[in-house]
Amino acid sequence: MLEIRNLHVSTEGKEILHGVNLKIKPGEIHAIMGPNGSGKSSLSLALMGYPRYQITAGQIILDREDITYLSVDKRARLGLFLAMQYPVAVPGVSVFNLLRTARKNVKKEVVTALQLQNQVKNSMKNLKIDEKFLTRSINEGFSGGEKKKVEVLQLATLEPKYAVLDETDSGLDVDALKVVSAGINKTSGPKVGILLITHYQRILKYVKPDFVHILVDGKIVRSGDAKLAEEVEEGGYVKFS
Fold first, then answer.
1. pTM of the full predicted structure?
2. Rounded to 5 degrees, what angle do the CA atoms 17, 234, 226 make?
3. Burial class (CB in 10 A: 0-12, 13-18, 19+), 59
4. CA dihedral sign, ordered 56, 60, 65, 70
5. Domain spans of the chain?
6. How many C-beta atoms lie closer than 10 Å to residue 217's C-beta?
7. How far is CA 184 from CA 39, 165, 178, 231, in A?
8. CA–CA separation, 82 vs 59, rounded Å?
9. 8 A C-beta contact, residue 58 and residue 6
10. Cα distance between residue 125 and residue 161, in whole Å
11. Which of 71, 137, 213, 217 is the most buried (most CB within 10 A)?
12. Architecture in CATH of 2-240
């Protein structure tokens, strides 16, 4: 499992997370909800090892291995994936080159360019991404929805053990949300654990969580099943503050 034990995280001298505990088993979908500034994105970046976020206490355990202070690339090789809230553009690097290089370095398996291309094109078809995007620079000139679809394309290509999806639903219209959600559902399964971070319940109508956690002021203040998301939708986050 992916286990977060009493995690404290600081950035620029300020503590953002104050003792987060969470266990995600393969096959489970956990949703973390919370208001702006509650620490949701900070949690995702700390899990992936972004150096701006310092872990001052606690542990991150992935399949019994302590990854608390490992570099980003080592976490990725062990099976951890992050879909970013704000995907960045990388001029000069094509989508296919990113996928091929990442797959080679993360999966450590021999796959021909043609085999990978066929797999990627099949995923692109499911996500309704035009094949022309394979030769375009990563996220350069992409719409918000196109960026999020490419994030899910990376998820499908890299096949991680645990995926952290940071507000993958932000900036999506209804049609794009349904397509992206279908892509997440297709990638999830009995061997994949998912941590889905979101503000709103709307994506949870399509990606059904097993557990919902409310994060407020850097702490998980309540956990429950999918009905908890409905409670948030009806009454907001005020009652959890």
1. 0.93
2. 65
3. middle
4. negative
5. 2-240
6. 15
7. 23, 9, 10, 24
8. 18
9. yes
10. 23
11. 213
12. 3-Layer(aba) Sandwich (3.40)
> Structure tokens of 236?
């907001």
Strand partners, 7: 20
Per-residue pLDDT of the chain (241 residues; tens, 9 = 90+): 999 999 999 999 899 999 999 999 999 999 999 998 899 999 999 999 999 999 999 999 999 999 999 999 999 999 999 999 899 999 999 999 999 999 988 887 777 888 899 999 999 999 999 999 999 999 999 999 999 999 999 999 999 999 999 999 988 899 999 999 999 999 888 999 999 999 888 899 999 999 999 999 999 999 999 999 988 888 888 888 7
Euclidean distance between CA atoms 85 and 167, whole angstroms: 5
Joined tokens for residue 208 = 């059904």
Residue 65, phi then psi, degrees to nearest 5: -105, 130
Q: Which two tokens mark 219?
A: 């702490």
d(CA 41, CA 55): 14
Query: Which element (helix H / strand E) includes 230?
Result: helix 227-235
